[in-house]
Amino acid sequence: MGLHDDALVIDGLVYHCDGDAGDLVAGGINAINVTTCHFEADFRQACEEISRWHGMLSKPNTPFRQIETAANFDSAQTDGKVGIILGWQNSRPVSDELDRFYFFRRLGLRIMQLTYNYRNAFGDGCLEPEEAGLTLLGRDAVRIMNELGIAIDLSHVGQQTMLDVIELSNHPVLITHANARALANLERNKTDDIIKAVAEKGGVIGASIYGPMCWDQDPNRKPTLDDFYRHLDYLVEVAGIDHVGFGTDLATGSNYQKMAFERSHWRRWEGINRFNQTFGEAIPERYLDDCNKHSDLPKITEALVQRGWSEDHIRGYLGGNFRRVFEQVWSV
Predict the structure, then answer these.
(1) Selecting from 3.20.20.140, 1.10.10.10, 3.10.290.10, 3.40.630.30, what CATH number does the domain 3-330 have?
(2) pLDDT tens, residue by residue, 190-203
């Protein structure tokens, strides 16, 4: 059994899963943080999507198991099922009704981004041209999430709002899917001061194979794993090896064409549109030229071995670092 097969492997962000676990299993994935509902979903829509997931998780032949505690990761490894962490990429279903956090926590919500790309009641997204930081309501939200053990994800959150959350939170925070802005100047990538602050808080940043976040803007050269390794090395240098994981930002399922259509109405911004217009709209074309699905991920593990990473460091990157933070946050 190889290292990738033996290790706990956690994908920090899968933006859509239609219920087919085939490629996840082929990629040796033990658990995923799956975006349970559209980032603009309201309360009703979020309830419907969580209900749909509970239906899938309750089927006797389901390939999935729900992850609600750190011990559930061990169970997923033992029984060969893919662990599902129910998460969101926006707080819109909560809106200004903070009691809803208690409701959704009981339904299994274990991780949430405070904002997506745009401003909401809690703070600013990473695309806002002027930032006001974390709002008073957002400060209350952080306190409640700490109290309930809901992990805070800052992947799409604005710069000042991130700094405010990091300072206020009693727990480590996560950036589940982002790369280094110093290497690819995209609003979604993170500056050195944010990367350092997350690490100093005890958190983890998940390096991503999403094409735009690895792209050097050369229209004649699609990014490859070599670009990803540059970002990964940089994140390790800035944050430290114990504070880096991976978050693919992939979709997974049996019908890529249907998934691409479902996402076609999402509001997209210049950095993403420019990449898609250059290299294509199909889901595999949105990622690295030589790594665009979960079954490609074992080649990264092989490369890390060849690059001289120790076994302990590889295990941390594959899932151990994320698990450590989840265990700390969820143990309330």
Answers:
(1) 3.20.20.140
(2) 999 999 999 999 99
